[in-house]
Amino acid sequence: MPTPAVSEDGMNRIAENTASCALCRRHLLVGEPARLYQDPNSKRFQKVCALCYEQADRRGWRPDGRPIVAVHANPPSDHAIREREGLIERLRGQLQSVEFDLDQVRNALAKAEQQAGELRSVKREMKELTGELRKKDREIKTLTDDRRRSEERAAHAEAAHRQEISRHHEVAAQLDSRDAQLEQVETRLSQLEQELERERRRYTELAEARRKEGDARQIRRLALEAFNRSEYLDRVVAISRSLGDPVVHVEVDGCELPRPVVISVAWDISWYEFVVKLDLHEQTVSVEEARRGDDPRDLPPHRLHPNGVLRSDRVVLTMQAYGVGAASA
Question: Is residue 231 part of a domain?
């Protein structure tokens, strides 16, 4: 029985001494192509027909060498198979040797890098020493420059002494100038006293305005006067002709400036809230609608207790409605 030939690199693959596919167990025909696969679990080479290539790939089998080998009518002897497996083992041994040599090369490279790092460290130290030497040279140069400047200062001091007499004359001129400045300061002081007096009067007026703003009755009365002059009064009067007299509540809402006064006007099926903002010192007033609604129960309960009344064409506080003196809660 002839022995199958081996290529120059010793890696020409041949079929094992079987005549059937390792997966489908089908007997291979004479001359039918097949491929050798290695099972990663058993490390054995199996012969697979062309119909089972995809199944072998799904199992994770690895094709060995050239993809196609011919299945001969006379299968190779066991000796040829053992010789082939021995060749594979020798190649694996050579691969391990190459990997060992590669590790040694890597170790040598790491050692060379370490030595290069030490060399760089030595260079840095030499550079630092050179820098220290240059620093000492600069210090010596600085001391020399200081000595030269000291000598120059001494010469300047002597020149300054000569100029002292002329400076006395300059001082006298400066005294005259300061007298003139003092007169200007006194004039400015008089102006500042006048400005201070104006500011005192302004502060007195401001304090009086803020005192009046602290009087809730006064603020509510002024707010109602502003509201009665606004466009919103006509709306309230028009609605009252249809829904009757409303519940009117007037209150000062907070202490911020301008002082806000909330005027609540409510009927059985509708309500409005208006905000009047007053600043007595700046003499400014604004009236605007804050919000509205349909159900008076949406308002805070205390705003449904009237302290004002709609009287013909204006809104007044309750006591004023009956012609009794000043405004009252």
Answer: yes
Q: 142: alpha, beta or left, given left = phi > 0 and alpha = psi -120 to 50?
A: alpha
Residue 212 banded pLDDT, cuts 50, 70, 90: low
The contacts of residue 3 (CB under 8 Å, 6+ apart) are 76, 77, 79, 80
Last residue within a domain, chosen from 194, 211, 228: 211
Contacts of 20 (CB under 8 A, 6+ apart): 26, 27, 28, 47
User: Residue 321: is its pLDDT beyond 70?
Assistant: no
In a domain, 286, yes or no: yes
Alpha carbon 116 to its chain centroid, in Å, reads 44
- Total domains present in the chain: 2
Please state, in angstroms and rounded to a whole number, the distance separating the CA atoms of residues 275 and 261: 6
CB burial of residue 49 (10 Å; 0-12, 13-18, 19+)? buried
Query: Is position 196 within any domain?
Result: yes
Considering the domain architecture, whether residues 287 and 241 belong to the same structural domain is answered as yes
What pLDDT digit, counting tens, does each position of 259-268 carry?
A: 899 999 999 9
Which range of residues forms the domain containing residue 236?
A: 216-321
Q: How far is CA 310 from CA 238, 243, 252, 317, in A?
A: 12, 13, 19, 9
pLDDT at 64: 76
Number of Cβ within a 10 Å radius of residue 240 = 14
Looking at 211, 230, 248, the residue that finishes a domain is 211
- Under a CB-based contact definition with an 8 Å cutoff, are residues 44 and 37 in contact? no
